[in-house]
Amino acid sequence: MKLHSQKVAKELTATVLCWAIALLIFFPIFWMVLTSLKTEIQAISMPPQLFFKPTLENYIGIFERSNYTRFAWNSVVIALGSSIIGLLLAVPAAYAMAFYPSKRTKGTLLWMLSTKMMPPVGVLIPIYLLFRDTGLLDSRLGLIIIFALMNLPIMIWMIYTYFREIPTEILEAGRMDGVDTRQEIMTIILPISMGGIASSFLLAVILSWNEAFWSLNLTASKAAPLTAFIASYSNPEGLFWARLSAASTLAVAPIVIFGWLSMKQLVRGLTFGAVK
Amino acid sequence: MNAQDHNRRIARWLLIPSVVALFIWMAVPLGMTIYYSFQDYNLLMPGFRQFAGFGNYQYFFSDPSFIAGLTNTLVLVGSVLLITIVLGTLIAVVIDQPFYGRNIARVLIIAPFFIMPTVNALIWKNLIFHPVNGLSAFISNLIGTTPIDWFSQYPMLAIIIIVSWQWMPFAILILMTALQSMDQDQVEAARLEGAGPVDIFRHIAIPHLQRPLIIVIMIETIFLLTIFAEIYITTGGGPGTQTTNLAYLIFQQALLQFDVGMASAGGIVAVILANIVAIFLIRVVGKTLAEH
User: Fold this and answer.
1) Any A CB within 8 A of B60 CB
2) Complex-level ipTM
3) What is the percent of chain B where pLDDT is above 70?
4) Over the stretch B231-275, which tens digit does the pLDDT of each residue have?
5) What is the distance in angstroms between the Cα of B239 and the nearest Cα belonging to chain A?
6) Contact status of B207 with chain A (Cβ, < 8 Å)
7) Domains plus CATH for chain A?
8) Long-range contacts formed by B96-105: CB under 8 A, 24+ apart
9) Is any Cβ of chain A less than 8 angstroms from the Cβ of B137?
10) Is A122 within 8 Å of B174 when comparing Cβ atoms?
11) What is the mean pLDDT of residues A160-176?
């Protein structure tokens, strides 16, 4: 009996401590959402107001005055487009390296990862000039290409680690039955590793959605995604905190919800097989 | 074994598109950057372009902001890594124990990782760090101290806090997942032999976390070396060059001063720096994954 109550007490302490940590970490996001429901006066009032009559005025204002939907649509097209292209390149490459490894496979994998180490600033100028000369500047296609290549190494790595976990006996059984490479990928490998492929796709979508270096430097008005839309609030207009918060909430809400829903898949993929 | 050879050949063709794409993506711009770095080339002076030798590099290295940029880059990466790893490990261990509402708490903890850097920076800059109306000013007033003007008094610290907030959830999540796969029998056995929580942490958890920690360090380093939006939005590299990292310095030279030659030289320096870090990291990662 004593042992039991000790256990409960311990769990209660843990609950208090853990929730304190969780709420502290989450607080800035909570505060952003709260501020988005205030009037501008309430938003900057001192002391900060915790209880007030919420208003949707800021959200309505954003839809009326700015082209939020156009920026959001750009984000959707760019994130999905680049992730799909990335997937189409990554799955075959990961398949080749996982099931037909050669002496050079390990070197190739590390080389691919090393391209990720190249800082974007190192190639900003040529990409900018190339884009200017080919009309890709401020175009969605331009960002789709860049993001696909940017995320490709990580996608290949993640899918590769998932493929490596597939027992080779399954594939050999299939080959005995005479399935060819295409059938093997489509009917055996893809169904088994759907979770892993999904998680690398999700990560690519999240990274593309949130990417800010290329989108700030290569887009102006036509193809600008939400990252650039939000950056425009860093000018004096940013003094309107309630509206800024509403715009920010709108910009992050889709990906945060998307991320939460896929958290389990995502985490497993992100450990690159380092955690079983 | 003919079919096997045939399949192997097909497999090679499947690999080629990715290799070619990544090679072009790396080699073409890099080659151009190297070329431009030896040119006198400013977009504001069209038509004027000539070979500059190592002139751009000389200017870049003798520019006092270069040393500042280099130091700031290293300070930023090092501090954020330290904070996220140390705090991240501690928090991961704490929230690994059973408590009520664990799933919801986990969802709240991971959220900052999904927030785009521009939003992250604006929220902290205005709602929290604002010297008059921000929450930090409110807290200062509450406890009776003068509010801190974060971005002019401690600009680098402010940016480190912002970036750490974004990346700590990532470390927590990976490490927490790793802890869950820890051998509970081993922990129980150690406990029966009288090992305290600290002993268990040091001798069982830490070795178990080694590989996930390497993954966390690698991924974070990749992204932290090129931090840009947070600086662009909050301080613009200032005051002076106090928060100018290499990424931001080159951006200033390229797109604000239009000095292609000089910015390219800076870009090459950044690439070399990243490669020094990369060689080290990739060696470690390669070794750990080979054991796999």
Assistant:
1) no
2) 0.86
3) 97
4) 988 888 878 888 888 888 888 887 777 888 888 888 888 888 888
5) 17
6) no
7) 2-59 (no CATH), 66-270 (1.10.3720.10)
8) B96/B176, B96/B179, B96/B180, B97/A11, B97/A14, B97/A18, B98/A11, B98/A14, B99/A11, B99/A14, B99/A15, B99/A17, B99/A18, B99/A19, B100/A11, B100/A15, B101/A15, B101/A19, B102/A18, B105/A18, B105/A19, B105/A21, B105/A22
9) yes
10) no
11) 84
